[in-house]
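Researcher: I'm comparing several assemblies side by side, and this is the next one on my list. It has 290 residues spread over two chains. Same procedure as the others: predict the full complex and return the structure.
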Amino acid sequence: MIESNKQPINFSLEALRSGNKAEIAAMVEHFMDPVYRLAIRMTGNEQDAEDVTQETFIKVIKSLAQFEGRSQLSTWIYRIAMNESLMSLRRRKPLQNVVEIDSEPADDQSEEIQIVDWAEKPEEELLSAEGKQELDLAISNLPENLRSVFTLRDLQDLSIEETAGILGISVANVKTRLLRARLKLRQDLSIYYRERIPREMQP
Amino acid sequence: MNQSKECRTLLHELSNLIDGTISPELCAELEAHMKECSNCRIVVNTTKKTIELYHQDESLVEMPAGSREKLWKRLELGEYIGKVEKR
C-alpha cells in the first residue's frame, strides 16, 4: 500500500512559503517517490518520469507562496504532477488525440468478457518478472483518460473526490472511467492468464 | 458469458461493490447472486486481484538513485542529498 496520502502530513506551510530550505527538502523527500510513480505510470518511461518529477517540484517550489491551503498539499502537488505528465505525453505524441470522450457506457463490452479464474494463482507467479511486465503492458495500453483515473484512485490511493478535483472532471465521470479502467485491465490480464492456466481448471 | 439481468447489474455496480459504496440491500442482493453465478464470482475476484496486484507492484517502485541526485541538484538542494529523514 502507498501510505503517504493517508497520513497527516506535518509540514509547516508558513516555513514552506517563506522558503525555508530544510522544510522544502523534507517536503521533496516525502513526495519524491509518489510523484515519480505517478509520472512513470502516466508517461511509461523512466526518462520522462525523471523530467516530469523535476518540473513538478520546480513548479511546486516556485508557487508555494501562492498555495492557499484550500486543498491538501498532496492534492495540489499531484495536480501539478498530473499536468506535467500530460504535457510530457503531448510533447511526445503531438499528433495523437489524447483527450478521449466518455462516449461509451461504463459497462459496454465490445469484446467477450473473459472468464478465467486466475485470482488464486500464487503471488510469486503473478508478481514474477514476467507477470510485472504484463501489468506494465496492460496499464500502458489503457487510454490516457482511463490511465489517469486508475493511477490517482487505485495506485496513489486518492479518493474519488480528490481524483475528480485533480483532473477537473465530475465525480460521476471519475466513477465511469474507473470502472472502465478496472474492467479493461482485468480483461487484459485474463487474456494473458488464459494461456497459462491448464484447460481443466477453466470454467 | 451469458448475462442475466443480475449479471448486468453486477457489472454495472462492480466498482461500487469493490469499494463498498453501495447500499447494504444491493450488496446483499449481489452477494446472493454471486453464490449462484460462478462467472460473476470470477469477475469480482479477478477484478479485486487486479487492483491488489497493481497496488503491491506500485509500492516497489522507487525513483532511481541517479534521478534523485539530479533532482536535488536541479532544485539547488544538493546539500540535503541523503540527509533528510522521511516524515
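Model: For your comparison table: Residues 123-201 of chain A form a domain with the Arc Repressor Mutant, subunit A fold (CATH 1.10.10.10).
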